[in-house]
Every structure is written in C-alpha cells, then in structure tokens.
Amino acid sequence: MDKGVATRIRPEVVKLQENIEQVIKGKSEVVKNLLIGFLAQGHILLEDVPGVGKTTLAHLLARSLNLSFSRIQFTSDLLPSDIIGAVIFNQSTHDFEFKPGPIFANIVLADEINRTTPKTQSALLEAMNSAQVSVDKQTYDLPRPFMVIATQNPIEFHGTFPLPKSQMDRFLMRLEVGYPALEDEVRILREQREVGNIEFVQPVMEAEEVLELQREVQNVEIADELLYYLAQIVAATRQSQLIELGASTRAALALRRAAQARAFYEGRRYCTPDDIKMMVVPVLAHRIQAIRTFERNGSDVSDEAQALMRILEEVDVPL
Length: 319
What we know:
A hairpin with a 4-residue loop joins strand 3 and strand 4. The protein has helices at about 5, 10-20, 30-40, 55-65, 80-85, 120, 125-130, 165-170, 180-190, 205-220, 225-240, 250-265, 275-285, 305-315, and strands spanning about 45, 70-75, 85-90, 95-100, 105-110, 130-135, 140, 145-150, 175, 245, 290. Helix 3 packs across helix 12 (about 250-265), helix 11 packs across helix 12 (about 250-265) and helix 13 runs antiparallel to helix 14. The longest helix has 17 residues, at about 250-265. The chain has 2 domains: about 5-210, Rossmann fold, CATH 3.40.50; about 220-315, Magnesium chelatase subunit I, C-Terminal domain (Helicase, Ruva Protein, domain 3, Orthogonal Bundle). By secondary structure, it is an alpha/beta fold. The two termini are about 30 Å apart.
C-alpha cells in the first residue's frame, strides 16, 4: 500500500489491507475494492485466469478478520444440499434434524462457480440476498458478517455453465486480479518458500469490530444531488445505444452502497462524485449487456466497461 495514501484512510482499514498485502503483492487496488465490497456488505465475483491468487485472497480476508472460512469446490455433480445442508434422521435421538452445509460460514469461497449447474448455482441466491437459507419449510440465519466470494475462469468454456443475469446481479462487484508486475513477481518468488503457506498471517480484527464498521458505512452521507447523479448514470445504461440490457434498481442501490463504502474507506463521512465514478465499472459492468459492434477486420470494439466510461463522459457531474 502507498504510505502517502494510507494516511488518509481509516486506520483499521490500513491495518487490514497491509495484513493482506503481506502475501498479495502489487494488487493494492484489487485488495482495496475487495475491502470496499466487504464494508458494503456485498458479495464479490473474482473473474480471472487460474493461478493469480483468487483463492488466496479470499482466505487471507477471512484470516485477517478472524472469521470462519469455507471453501466449496463447484463441480457439475454438486447438489444444492451439498451447499446448504440437509435434514437427516438422527439415530440417537430418533428424530430429524438439520445438518448445516458449508454455506454456514462468515466468508464462503464459491470456487469455479460456473462449473456447476444452474440449479445448484441458484442455491446461493437466497443466502446472498438475505443471509439466510430455507430447508424443509424452515429458515436458518447465516452467521454475520456474511460474504460470498466466487471465482470463475473467463476464458475456459468447456464444461461450464455461464451465470445468469439474476445470479450476477447478486454480486456487488466483479473484480479481476491480473498478473503481477515484473518486480512484484520477483518479490513473490523471493519471499514465498512454501506452497500455499499463509499460516503466518494473524488476525487484526474481530467479527464485532467488522459489524460496527459495516454499520458506520450505512451512515455515510450521500447528498441528494449525488443520488440524482447516480440515478442519471443508471438511467443512461437503459437508454444508451451501446447497451442492450441496462442496470436494474438493485444495481443502483448497490452503486450507492459501494460509493458510501469507498468514502468510508477514504476516511470521509460523506460521498463525493468520485466515489460514484470509481465504483461504476466494478459495480455495473457485470450487470449490463453491451451491444457488440465490429470493425472491418472483425475485432470487437465495444464492451461493458467502455460503454460505461462513455456514459460517465456524457452525464454532467454535480459541482
């Protein structure tokens, strides 16, 4: 983390980010957005090629916060009950009882989420939407704080089931980790001696402290003119000739929460236009569908991020 920038940030968040960056080198912006998503009580989709640290990032967040962590490896034969749990007959009590599944953790890693069937993917919807699950007409609350971090490989299509928009809409942000810069990769090669060893990373925050920070984020002020600016951006996605499917009202609420969390991360009790602008692509890009246009050589010249950047150029920023 840049020490010059860190002086403005909440000290609790500085400590947390620096703890994670003991292992994740040169990815301050990714770690920052992950923490913003967590402060906003959102879920994160990490979309990138294998081996860039997606799983490690999720595990480090859980260790740094001293929270329970569960990893679910999604495969084509995975069933909803393998995630949520099931009602079983207890031989000793001669009664049926609910056996919780791996979803009952503070931070759940849904690894390679697009490798399982839509039916199993949908088992996460209720959990991600309201932090609870329903089994056999009974509702069970999930532990708080609760966050799903899902991963998927964007370039591998064999044996995968693309996430429907209804599922994508539950993720607050979609992030890409990316390859490290040359100097950072050298540091990783120099410092990481044991495969997957993150045991030296110690917790720097407890669950109750996290919940208090999340409550404080909800109280970050966002002025009416900024709400109007945010609504104009969302409305523009529905009217743009570059976009086939615009952002929903749920997306607008997600953008507001992310902007509040970013302001809080930066040590402010109020939002600025930049808080909204910086969150537009990670929050909205995976929720919309751009109209593909092609040049004469056949190359694709339009995507969701480019369409959103065009909208940001066109919508007037409040003074």
